[in-house]
Amino acid sequence: MNESRSIAPLLLVIFAIFWLLLAINPLYRDVWVAENLILVICITYVVSTYQRSPFSNTSYWLIFLFCILQTIGAHYTYAEVPFGFWVADLLEIERNHYDRLVHLAFGFFLVLPFKETITRTIKFSSYRSELFLLVLVFFGIGSFYEIVEWLYAIFYEQATETADSFLGSQGDIWDAEKDMLLNGLGAWLYLLLFNPKTKC
């Protein structure tokens, strides 16, 4: 985390332009607002910590990539992203799996920033305990988000189309459980593939 020059300002500018373009005429404006609330809160945190406790350039790149995927999902809704339909046609499957991709990407792309934040205050006795806690954190975040989706659907139960678009379950009764699994699996895969002891 000792890069002489941070890439964060440039990535923020690029993302802001991308976000503004996709803020124009989203498929469902109310769903777009709901999807972007958490994104705006998280980006505000990342920007506010830039001076006193910056992330590594690798983390900023990973955050940027996830935000791009999330912004696309918010514009179209996760169940109706064109790329997901293209893949579904290619693989001859019925479901648009873009939401699954983003849940996996959430854990994979964001576990390093979480690790950098957590290890500033917590010193782990072993790699295994660090791995266990980080993966558990992403299972917990995934569970929390599924609860938020459920509460949103209850609030908008009269507007069935809005609730269904936000949930994005596409008729899968185990959608929430699969999404939570992918959050934790994504985090575990990143930690497995990349040496967590190596400074970024």
List the helices and strands and how they pair.
Layout: H1 8-22, H2 29-48, H3 57-76, H4 82-91, H5 98-118, H6 127-155, H7 160-167, H8 175-193
Mass-distribution shape = globular
Radius of gyration equals 17 Å
Structural class: mainly alpha
Low-confidence runs (pLDDT<50, min 5 residues)? none
Helix content: over 70%
Secondary structure: number of strands: 0
What does the largest sheet look like?
Answer: none
What is the H/E string? Answer: HHHHHHHH
Give the tally of structural domains.
Answer: 1
Average pLDDT for all residues: 84
The number of distinct helices, counting runs of at least 4 residues, comes to 8
> Which percent band covers the strand fraction?
under 5%
Distance between the termini: 6 Å
Which tags fit this structure?
mainly alpha, 0% strand, 200 residues
Question: What can you see in these coordinates?
Answer:
The protein has helices at 8-22, 29-48, 57-76, 82-91, 98-118, 127-155, 160-167, 175-193. It has 200 residues and is mainly α. It has one domain. Helix 6 packs antiparallel against helix 7. The relative contact order is 0.13. The model has no long low-confidence stretch (mean pLDDT 84).
Describe, in short, the structure shown.
With 200 residues, the chain is mostly helical.
